[in-house]
Design a protein that fits this description.
homodimer, 9 strands
């Protein structure tokens, strides 16, 4: 291969080769937290069902009929020594993202997943059904390609652009201009942009298999705290409405909260609930895709309704605690350790010390 | 929601609720290997480039133009204490799969990734570009849905059915009938089927960004052994032909080997190479999708050509070592630990003790 092309391709892959990327600089400055000791780790699937399909044979041969598995949910876990002394936590990412959400931050710091494990919590990361390692049901794409189904029936795939992400995630008032107190490591925006991937949730049935699988996982773990973010922020509650067994707590981060029936509120009020919001909810220009002020109001109303029904729900609005500058991606913000400590303290007080199951 | 539907959905998610699944039985029988101690772990991306797209506005608004990132490769790693005393190993999965390939086996045993780390090797797992957590370029799907591009231009997505996988992976001569000495844990076939996901490699440019990213990762790690399997079996060599810098060894598992030019062979002969094949290569009925006998022959020819050019290439044909019954998914077979030990011994002898870089 032409040497110029080779070097160009390598340069593309390595990014800016002459400068140390932001994540590497951050890593070298962070003090070494010491070794990570695990009792066990691994991965498995929840859910999944067989679907029979007919497709062209390989290499264009005669059509063949066979079975595929769809609606499965990939889960990766780590258990620290004595992890069974605490409620395990299931973390589910949002739109256009994967379990990377909870891993090493874009600027190279330990993410929530490892932080919680170092704080002696068992952590289970789930790729939503139809996302990342959970795969997706590609049947319709084949049908459209073959002309069996019109193109308009292709599911709407969300491709969140850098500009849309900047706005929805409240990195700053305009693209490229961060809020002065912005906690998100915007210098690592290029690295962050690489974890934004197509979102195929539009092809899922209702109820979403992710909700059902989350409920089943809580049962399989003999009790777990379910955590959702953004698109999945209210998934713990949706899972609890399907089957509350084993759901010991619900943590809902940055999303609109729906208006529910009294019956639904009564069911959800049985499970301790934490709702979290960051900063600058009123500071984005009008006309953006997300209306964070409205979302915040809807969740305050939800928290109030749950408490009025005898539940234990808390709204943790970070600026109200004096913690400024948090973005929508608060688990990746510079103060992510401090926020994780707040969540763990809430779990200790409301889930673990509480007699409620 | 109707209680019957709820219970049915839960049952689907939990699988067979009344029987202990195969993976749980295996787990309880395996002896406890003790805690896993890590010096560090994390995830990051290699490669990725900006692409400008125009798409309908959210909620059907006026079209907007913005940038997305494509061709990035997600990498997850674990480094044991003193991991820097050994060459790190980059493991890349094959068709229709993800890095799950190297993780907990379908029947619940420790996979190669953790096994190699317990043997003091740093392990980097890469989701191929366009797969799993690396995302994929969904632009064409949006163009077809909008009618801008004809449906025939949709990429051909590979949906490997249970029946095709059984045949290609040589689980047995006919679907549901395993070879008597089959090492693959076929009782866990349902769990295995959940890790088989759509393969969108057809939408990638040539050269594949995965090859370029693998080469860049070897440089970033200041030297690594690259390991590929099946569809990615020859990716280490493709990466080395792009840029050999930092590629300290190449491990190619179960694939057809191409015929190369003398110049290409001379380049590859500079890097120690291990080629691995399992059992029953001649035992599948004619007319199947994969012709393992032909693949095996092609790789014997490749190994011979590399050695003739002064290289250090070895064909490890497991039955020739008296190890019988291995499938195409040999890293998940029941004797996966024994096979991992063979690979590690090869690395120690050919990569680490060798002065060649």
């Amino acid at each position: 291969m032409n040497k110029q092309i080779t070097l160009a391709l390598l340069a593309v892959s390595l990014g800016v080769m002459s400068a140390t990327p932001a994540w590497a600089q951050a890593k070298s400055k962070a003090k070494d937290p010491g070794p990570l000791v695990l009792k066990s780790q691994g991965s498995f699937f929840v859910g999944g069902e067989k679907k029979t399909i007919t497709q062209p044979g390989f290499g264009g041969g005669a059509p063949t009929t066979g079975d595929i598995t769809v609606n499965q949910m990939y889960v990766q876990y780590q258990i620290p020594p004595d992890g069974d002394r605490h409620a395990p936590i299931v973390m589910v990412h949002g739109c256009c993202l994967s379990s990377k959400t909870w891993e090493t931050t874009p600027d190279g710091r330990i993410g929530w997943s490892e932080y919680f494990v170092r704080k002696k919590r068992s952590v289970y990361l789930a790729d939503q059904v139809s996302r990342a390692r959970s795969g997706f049901d590609a049947t319709t794409f084949a049908d459209v390609k073959a002309g069996r189904v019109p193109p308009a029936q292709l599911p709407n795939i969300i491709n969140a652009t850098h500009q849309v992400a900047w706005s929805v995630f409240r990195f700053g008032p305009t693209f490229g201009t961060p809020f002065p107190d912005q906690q998100f490591p915007v210098e690592a925006l290029d690295e962050f942009s690489k974890q934004v991937i197509p979102d195929l949730n539009a092809l899922l049935p209702n109820p979403s298999p992710t909700w059902t699988n989350m409920a089943a996982l809580a049962v399989r773990l003999r009790g777990a705290v379910l955590m959702g973010h953004s698109e999945s922020g209210f998934f713990p509650e949706q899972a609890a409405l399907i089957a509350p067994d084993g759901i010991r707590g619900m943590i809902s981060i940055e999303m609109p909260c729906p208006t529910l029936t009294a019956d639904q509120i009564a069911k959800l009020a049985k499970i301790p609930t934490l709702v979290m919001f960051g900063d600058h909810l009123n500071d984005m220009p009008a006309g953006g895709i997300a209306n964070w002020a409205t979302s915040f109001d809807s969740c305050n109303a939800y928290v109030a309704a749950v408490n009025k029904a005898g539940g234990d729900a808390e709204m943790m609005h970070l600026p109200a605690l004096g913690i400024k500058g948090n973005s929508h991606m608060l688990m990746q913000d510079r103060n992510s350790d401090q926020l994780a400590d707040l969540v763990i303290a809430w779990i200790d007080k409301h889930v673990e010390k509480s007699a409620k199951r």
